[in-house]
Amino acid sequence: MSEETPGFALQAITFDDLEGWRNDDPSGLFEVMEACRRQIIDIKPYRTGSLGLTTEDLLPLLEAARRQNLSSATDGRAFFQSHCRPFRIRRTDGNPGFVTAFYEPEIMVSAVPDDEYRFPLYRRPDDLIDLDAGNRPACLPDSYAFGRRSEGGIEAYPDRRAIDEGFLAGRGLEIAWAKSKIEVFFVHVQGAARLRYPDGTIGRITYAAKAGHPFSAIGKLLIERGEIDRSEISMQAIRQWLGSHPGQVDEVLWHNRSYIFFREVPTTDLNAGPTAAAKVPLIAGRSLAVDRLIHTFGFPFFVRSGNLVHLDGGRPFARLMLALDTGSAIVGPARGDIFTGSGDQAGELAGTVRHDADFVILLPNAAATRFA
């Protein structure tokens, strides 16, 4: 049986149907599951997506996990097999799911601007407000989660071009300045970064808000213009093209009107991943960004991609992951973004991930009865 939802369905399957499951080791997920439990209990439950799964549905799984002392792959798989039922996410248009990847870049910055460090990373402005059904003006579609509070009311916030051209200058919102507009743009795309200052100090920033405009992929633009072949598109290819066409950088970057604002976060443990939308540290290779309008943070997903082999030494990617982040480009029920880690090497891994994939969500047993 399957539970129909607009655009997709959940199809009940068994763990024996999960190709690659018997070779996976999900035992490393239990620490972050406990972090999710504490976030839900002590601070704030996660927002419920349109699929209807709530943190109340998730908590029995998280509570059971904290009582376990699991260290082996076999024990980890056995835990999920005992406490969850797998459901394949089947798009009703017949198309497969799709995965990309993201990472935490590290860039050189300065706390003060000069001739070399000229491109700012901004904090959230005080005139940027969250939008909902109660305050969203008719001129802004539902996709706008943020707007600008002005004397005339609520309006769309200035976009990337306007901000690049100085809209926020002089307001003291700069966290730091980078050497390259291209570097700043890719920090926006990744949603977090490590900041290395000239004296060796390392800071950390993560997503705080966005101007509100929809994300528009510049890679798609370059493909449509014939600048990069579709089969060759990657973050590395886009960076190389931008570096080779300095006179067109602004035009191409401004195609993506979306603009990201950041907040500074503690750097007490640089071995831990960045803290993203679920407010817990990300785990390289085990953290997944999903469409939060559909899915709820904290739920486990088994993702398999037969053609994605460079993340696992030549073997097809097949791992249990936790939904811990989201992103403007992550839209749809079977769409995910895999966190590959921090630094340049993680960026090399992430930049070429653009693969079809199968998505299976693991539902705690009680919640699974509503979908079976």
Description of the molecule:
Helices cover 23% and strands 28% of the residues. The protein has helices at 30-43, 55-66, 73-83, 160-164, 181-190, 218-224, 235-244, 249-255, 344-350, 365-368; strands at 2-5, 8-12, 84-91, 97-104, 106-110, 119-122, 128-130, 146-150, 153-155, 174-178, 192-196, 202-210, 260-264, 287-289, 300-305, 317-325, 335-342, 354-364. It starts with a strand and ends with a helix.
Structural class: alpha+beta
Look at the structure and give the mean pLDDT: 94
In which order are the strands of the major sheet placed? 4-17-14-16-15-18
Beta-strand residue fraction:
25-35%
Low-confidence stretches: none
User: Treating each run of at least 4 consecutive H or I residues as one helix, how many helices?
Assistant: 10
Rg, Cα atoms, Å: 21 Å
Helix content: 10-25%
Report the count of strand segments: 18
Task: Give the distance, in angstroms, between the N- and C-terminal Cα atoms.
Answer: 6 Å
